[in-house]
Amino acid sequence: MSFQEQLQTLRKAKGLSQEKLAEFLGISRQAVAKWEVGHSYPDIANLILLSEFFKVSIDKLVNDYEENCRLCIKENKEKPINEEIITFLCKAKKATYAGKGPEIRPSRPNSHDLEYLEGSLKYIDTYLGGEQFAGEEALWKDEIPFWSMNYMGRVLEERFSGSFLKEALSLVSKENPYRGPIIYQNGQYKYHCIINGEFEWFQGHEEIYFEDTKVYECFFHGGEIK
């Protein structure tokens, strides 16, 4: 079931009009109407509110997210994902930035570089900047690159917590081996990540909220190198 179908079903099950749902979210009725016909898509803050209001998980709400994204990428379910590669990638992520791993010699002026090795596999994460940053994670096998992910992010508010971001990123899973979990909360901080596509070709974004204020955002995309 697509997002717009899910939303209509959930709203009608509660006996709500579009106006009443919009009133709860603090938005216009027209915005809700556009969501329900697939002309637009709610931001993460509203997805969280919808999830809490209807008592359903965000991944259920966005089950068919690709149908609602203008940058739609077709899923390729037939191509198996190499379990060894996914396991290695998750271990590498947890051992480097998320795990506060040591940096290696910079590959570019003023860059931050982190590396993880296991047998013939190599992972390198290199980024520039701090409060506003850009970087790339990549994988090699026998010194030949075969996968990469670029990212660009920024801190929006002083209440951002780098420790909370690392905490969320340390929960990277084999099901979503890109950044953090779909949703994670600890105290007043809430992390959310949406992925569109598959390991071979994907894009996504993550955000962190402190209470109801967005304090961080990051956009990323990547896939196989051939």
Brief rundown of the structure:
The chain has two domains: 66 residues, 434 Repressor (Amino-terminal Domain), CATH 1.10.260.40; 142 residues, no CATH class.
Keywords:
2 domains; eight-stranded antiparallel sheet; alpha+beta; 434 Repressor (Amino-terminal Domain); 28% helix; elongated; 226 residues
Task: Describe the protein in words.
This is Putative transcriptional regulator. Pfam families: DUF5680, HTH_3. The chain has helices at 3-13, 18-25, 29-36, 44-54, 58-61, 83-95, 162-169, and strands spanning 112-118, 121-129, 132-141, 144-155, 183-186, 189-198, 201-210, 213-224. The chain is an alpha+beta fold. It has 2 domains: 3-68, lambda repressor-like DNA-binding domains (434 Repressor (Amino-terminal Domain)); 83-224, no CATH class. The model is unreliable at 65-79 (pLDDT under 50).
Secondary structure: number of strands: 8
Proportion of helical residues: 25-40%
The SSE string, one letter per element, is: HHHHHHEEEEHEEEE
- Spatial shape: elongated
Share of β-strand residues: 25-35%
Write down the Rg: 19 Å
Number of helices: 7
Biggest β-sheet description: 8 strands, antiparallel
Low-pLDDT parts are: 65-79
Largest sheet strand order: 1-2-3-4-8-7-6-5
On the 0 to 100 scale, the average pLDDT is 88
Tally of structural domains = 2
Distance between the amino and carboxyl termini: 34 Å
SSE-based structural type: alpha+beta
GO molecular function: DNA binding
Protein name: Putative transcriptional regulator
Pfam families: DUF5680, HTH_3
InterPro entries: Cro/C1-type_HTH, DUF5680, Lambda_DNA-bd_dom_sf
